[in-house]
Design a protein that fits this description.
With 414 residues, the protein is α/β, with parallel strands linked by helices. The chain is built from 14 helices and 15 strands. Bound molecules: pyridoxal-5'-phosphate (PLP).
Length: 414
């Protein structure tokens, strides 16, 4: 038994070095391992590779920016052209999830979620509402792993063992507006924000019940809480529009993003800061926002995002999401035959199949690897699909066939 120097995220530290699968190359919706085996990347790596692998124009943009100015910070009075240009692109009314926002930049989704919580709380604070610190999140949900983001996350296993988390966060069932009302009834004047993924992603791929997101919006309007849409998976074309908030017609006050903003070519995340929040932050000319990361607005990372957003726009990749989803969903529903799949759910180009109790999703994922497809197990019983938006019909069919074959093989072993 040898253990690699690299301590892997969401993995068993005791695992042998030989159990890891080195991925060495990618092109479009496919990747290859070190032994030369080809796979369809059915989860766009980790829900992020919207434009597909191997895009030269993004690589060229990264190289050109790195040669000119690889990095310089944006604290205080400093800025750089890629960061400004990216923010301008994202704030375009045809793109942004709400009118007239500004954009705060981070290096990933968890930082974006923590930033959104802090921005919501401090916006109330500077407006004199100093006791508005309570945040409502949902269960199940996934918002990341930093102490703030994991506190919001509605997956108990992800929180266990890490000691005291962030205070003043309460969770409600993901689809239950009455539970939100109960919190608001006794603490409404203390609620800083309600946080929701428009479609729950890693928590199980759960599209919102009809009227649910509108219901959250109304409750925020009635009580003065901010609505935070966590668009880290849902953004950048995944749901058929730039943002899921646009698809569902619900304008959040803050919206977090990451993943699809660069399709993973560089680490970027951020927060759209809508008028209700930015107005308070801008009201006092002497107020200083004491929040930000070393790499907020990193110019090389932003250059990748600009090139990626350009591809999404020029190739209108969002328009492909519903077609991909429809083909995938129809295939997943019948691929495994009777009774082995108890639910197929999703929206746009993010879908999941729930397996009959006893058919283990990790075993299905492992079996799918032998059939040349990388999907992702969620918990013990759900397999998720979230492919690059460039995936072709034949590749979707390969995902479906591998899923069906793997589920049957695993069930037959039980
Ligand atoms: N929010 C959502 C909805 C996510 O799905 C994720 C990651 O999967 C995050 C936040 C955290 O992002 P990161 O892993 O980049 O910190």
């Amino acid at each position: 038994m040898t253990r690699p120097s690299l301590l892997h995220p969401f993995a068993k530290p005791a695992a042998d070095a030989a159990s890891y699968l080195p991925i060495v190359r990618g092109d479009g919706a496919r990747v290859w391992d070190a032994a030369g085996n080809e796979y369809v990347d059915a989860l766009a790596s980790l829900w992020y590779c919207q434009v597909g692998h191997g895009r030269d124009s993004i690589v060229d943009a990264i190289a050109a920016q790195a040669r000119t100015l690889a990095a310089f910070h944006t604290f205080e009075r400093f800025t750089n052209e890629p960061a400004d240009r990216l923010a301008d692109l994202l704030c375009d009314p045809a793109v942004a999830p709400m009118p007239d926002p500004r954009v705060f930049l981070t290096s990933g989704g968890s930082e974006a979620v923590d930033s959104a919580i802090k921005l919501a709380r401090v916006a109330h604070f500077v407006a004199g509402d100093t006791t508005r610190t309570l945040v409502i999140s949902r269960s199940p949900s996934y918002h990341g792993v930093t102490l703030g983001a994991v506190t919001l996350t509605g997956l108990p296993l992800n929180r266990a063992g890490f000691g005291p988390l962030v205070g003043d966060v309460t969770q409600v069932p993901w689809d239950d507006l009455d539970a939100v009302d109960e919190v608001l009834a006794h603490s409404g004047d203390r609620v800083a924000a309600i946080v929701a993924e428009p479609v729950v992603g890693a928590g199980g791929v759960l599209p919102p019940p009809p009227g649910y997101l509108e219901g959250l919006r109304r409750r925020c309007d009635d009580t003065g809480a901010f609505l935070i849409a966590d668009e880290v998976i849902c953004g950048f074309g995944r749901l058929g529009d730039w943002f899921a908030s646009r698809r569902y017609g619900v304008e959040p006050d803050l919206a977090t993003f990451a993943k699809g903003v660069t399709s993973g070519y560089q680490p970027v995340g951020g927060v759209f800061v809508g008028p209700a929040v930015r107005g308070r932050l801008e009201a006092d000319p002497a107020f200083v926002l004491r929040h930000g990361h070393t790499y907020s607005g990193h110019p090389t990372a932003c250059a990748a995002a600009i090139a990626n957003v350009g591809i999404l726009r020029d190739e209108d990749l969002a328009a492909r999401a519903d077609g991909i989803g429809a083909r995938l969903a129809a295939g997943l529903a019948t691929a495994a035959g009777d009774d082995l799949v108890v639910d197929v759910r999703g929206a746009g180009a993010v879908w999941a199949a729930e397996l009959r109790a006893g058919v283990d999703a990790v075993a299905v994922r492992d079996e799918m690897l032998t059939l040349g497809v990388i999907a992702r197990p969620l918990g013990a019983g759900v397999v998720a699909f979230c492919p690059p938006l460039v995936i072709g019909d034949a590749e979707i069919d390969r995902c479906v066939d591998a899923f069906g074959g793997a589920v049957r093989a695993v069930a037959a072993r039980n």
